[in-house]
Amino acid sequence: MLFIETDIGRDPDDLFALLYFVASEINIAGIAISPGDPDQIAIGRFISKIAGKDIPIIASQKDRNKSSANKFHREILKEHGMSLTSKADCQYINDFIKNDTDVFICGPPQSFGDLIHKYNPEIGKLVIQGGFLSYEIHDISCQKLDKFIGQKEVSTFNLNGAGINGEYAVKANCRELRMVGKNLCHTIIYDQNIHNKICQIAPKNEAIEIIRSCMTKYLKKHKNGKKFHDPLAAVAYTNPEIFKWVRGDPYKNNGYWGTILKNDGGFIAADVNRDKFWDIIAHGG
Fold this sequence. Notes:
This protein has one domain (about 1-285): Inosine-uridine Nucleoside N-ribohydrolase, Chain A (Alpha-Beta Complex), CATH 3.90.245.10. Helix content is about 35%, strand content about 20%. The protein has helices at about 15-25, 40-50, 70-80, 110-120, 155-160, 165-170, 180-185, 190-200, 205-220, 230-240, 275-285; strands at about 1-5, 30-35, 55-60, 100-105, 125-130, 175-180, 190, 225, 245-255, 255-260, 265-270. Helix 4 (about 110-120) packs across helix 6 (about 165-170).
């Protein structure tokens, strides 16, 4: 069972990651949405529909009535005959994360961090899209970006977006922690060349068809492509063997995140086999 926390409705990354899980037939126990606006909840309902099951939807904040979803997501809901707003099933995630439940974070971990702070349950695998692994602290061969060379710590949106709950989240009592941070995410770009190759493969199911349809539209307006942060982290959950990992612990220093190497620490992503990654995305797991 996999529980997901996401801020779906803004960057399409979250939508693609959740559709990938559906395509891979991952058993989703529930989805917590941050902050939990009605239009975000509607997108959660859309994921539930494509999965063909009634997935519980949780709002990280109570009684939200603002709008978070952008035009890109609203158009998807309209195309599939979905309402543009919906109400969450509840606000609390306690009933959906049991002992050994796996957790995937691709947004500010507001609900999950609060759960860890208050109850600290034993969970299974925890995969978080966030954090940062400095090139200078390890000797694993990896693709490097000039903007990160010499950087020890950087600000990361997901973990900082939850305030202190981001710090609670990375300290969860989990069987296995895996972090996929900026050092790697910013090197994974879905562009027109990738799209052309992927579309040569027959889609496995409706979830894969939707990802491709969405990217066809996205690439018409964004010629430089789309950084695939959250789908990369999703594949780190399903196929960790295609990644290069460093053992260490994530930490926060004055709003900036880094990694301390530690032999018995979590698994921090240094690089990935890109050919295998895109093949997995194309085939849906």
